[in-house]
Amino acid sequence: MTTLFSKETMMKLKALIASAKTYVVLLILAIGLLLYTVSVGYKQVNRLHETGDMVAHTLEVQRTIVELSAKFQELESLQLKVFLKEDSSNLSGIVVSEMEQTIERLKLLTSDNQAQQERVKVWEQLCDKISSEVNTVESTDSIAVIDSIEAKDSVEINLASKRYQRIGRISKIVEESQILKERMLSEENYLMVARKEEYTSQSFLTPMSSLLVAITALGIFLIGFISIYKQKGEIQEVNNQVFNQNKKLQETEEFLKGVYKSSNNVISHFEPIMNGEKNIVDFQFKYTSDAIEKVTGEEQDDIIGGSLLQLYPMVIENGLFEIMKVCFLSGENQEHESVYMFENQTKYIHNTVVKSANGITNTAWDTTKVKEAEKVLQKLNEDLSLQNTIFKEAENVAGVGSFIWYLDDGSATVSDNFYRILGVKPNSFDVTFDAYKEYVHADDISIFESLGTNTEDSGKSTVFTYRVFTKNKGIRYLDLKGRNLEIDNRPVSVGIVQDITSRIEKDRELIESYEKLKQSNEELESFNRVASHDLQEPLRKIQMFISRIEDDEEGKTPNAGSAYFNKIKAATFRMRELIQNLLSYSRIDKINSKFEQIELNDTIEKVEDELSQLIKDTKTEISYSGLPLLYGIPFKIEQLFTNLISNSIKYRNKDIAPQVHIVSEKLRSDTIAENFVKNAEYYYKISLRDNGIGFDPEFASNIFEVFQRLHSKNEYSGTGIGLSICKKIVEKHNGYIHAISKKGEGATFIIYLPVQ
């Protein structure tokens, strides 16, 4: 029974297998199963394809963001080069055009992300700002003033500061673009993490689906060989797509690693640490870029996996920890900036916190250099403002005004004091060549117009003096000093203008005084001629006739008559002596004798010989030794000491013999206490001291004046001109003389003569 049953069963099975219906049923089942498994695999492949496309799309967005950020930095570099004159070409317009195209591409790429679309709008605003700044810089570059101009000027500094401020504003825009870049990259990083997880999941399911299809295909190979064969090409294509997507994903990962390494910002991903009540008590470092080592000084491997509060407990005090909690719970992006202390260094850190996957991502930007640069810039601005204030005050005190005159179109920039010199309020009108010419005196128009036609070499000063009409001061004389330069290929005159009206008036007064002095000198010359001839001739005749009368009437003249004749003789002698001294005094300045080397010892010996009889009669003692070698007019130096020694003998003390001591020493001009014009570095101080009657100190300056006598002519003879002649001689030798004395204690005459 068993064998029969088995045979019957086998026969039925063979018949069933050989039956066409069986093949049809199996074929239908195989096709159905194949379709099902293929559809599942196809869906998995499509999902994998879509996930790969999303990863590639995120990569493309990131690349576009980085490219756009690079355009901003490139534009900043170009503007800085233009500012520093390192590059005469300006490609800013091309970069701006490329920037706008990049923004349009980024707008299309982020059309499915509303948050990123809002940030793209911010990019457009930054692009408009920086484009406006670039256009402003290019339009004003032609009139900017180069900081290195040799003639330093406040207006130059102001214009240079404006250009520098525009560069600063461009830098701030670029900084904003970098912050925006980091925010968008953070958002894309978050999307990348999510899409990578989905891609990983799909990458796992897709091979499983493919394996299931392969097993099913093998199970129904005999039934669905043709169908499987037809699907072979499609499966190969799917595998190729999977391979390509895997390759792109690897490239994306390598690119992101490169971005993280190349960025100076610290990018960290955290996951919250919860307590039993589901409250966030800390955050754990899941990832951080190696840039954290430069900021904090700690190793990257030592940080990853660690606790935020244990590593950096200061985040509780400065509020960053609370902001991270708010970001994780609300999902809203947060900004935070605070001061940190790393390795005994104070650092300013700006944090951007965004929600990503099951944690948060923080992008930390070290803004210490930016803060320090802002402080330096603020200090420079304060110093510049102070310098401008000082310069304006200096212009007011000095009575000058400054200008920059563009000779090609006649426009000008002038200081406030320039307006005040014209008698108007600052900035009351726009100074141009034609507008300013209305103030210029009609007779001086040609002088002023030469400013615009002058072709002197660059850097040489040109000076003009002309008259202007002012509203409150009338006609004023202005002195203009300018230098012709070229700024941005434009001819420019830079300089100052000064009101010299008071100087002109003083010059006129000086000319009038000179004319009066010239007339006085002519009258003095006439007097000298009269004194030399007309006045002395009658004196000689009087003396001659008196002498004849005395000879003829000798012994016959009464005593009274003889006394009268003696008085007449004394008067005529004094008159003749007075005239000769006056002539000698007036001729000192006219003496043009050559200066020679003089042995002062020899000169004193000659004076002793000349006054030998007087010295003998009065028993005068003269002591001197080691006197210097002078440079002067020999006979005038001899006359100087003759007068001084004679004066000492004349005003001697009647009870004791006269004594005259002459000493000298060499002094530096800066050690001389007496106040006089010192044109030499060294002077000889020659002191002549006597033991005569002296004089009151109050008369020390009067004794050198003409006709100044301290005693009556009955007490001491003389004309009162001798010491005046001494003063004239010393001044002729560019020296100085003065006397010190006390009544009854003698006098000392001190002479300073330059060492040649």
UniProtKB/TrEMBL annotation:
Histidine kinase domain: residues covered: 530-756
Name of the protein this chain belongs to: histidine kinase
Lipid metabolism as UniProt keyword: no
InterPro entries the record matches: HATPase_C_sf, HATPase_dom, His_kinase_dom, HisK_dim/P_dom, HisK_dim/P_sf, PAS-like_dom_sf, PAS_fold_3, Sensor_kinase/Photoreceptor
Annotated catalysed reactions: ATP + protein L-histidine = ADP + protein N-phospho-L-histidine
Claim: rRNA-binding is one of the keywords in the record: no
E.C. code: 2.7.13.3
Pfam families recorded: HATPase_c, HisKA, PAS_3
Cited PROSITE patterns: HIS_KIN
Segments traversing the membrane: 20-38, 204-229
Molecular functions (GO terms): kinase activity
UniProt KW keywords: Kinase, Membrane, Phosphoprotein, Transferase, Transmembrane, Transmembrane helix
Organism of provenance: Maribacter dokdonensis
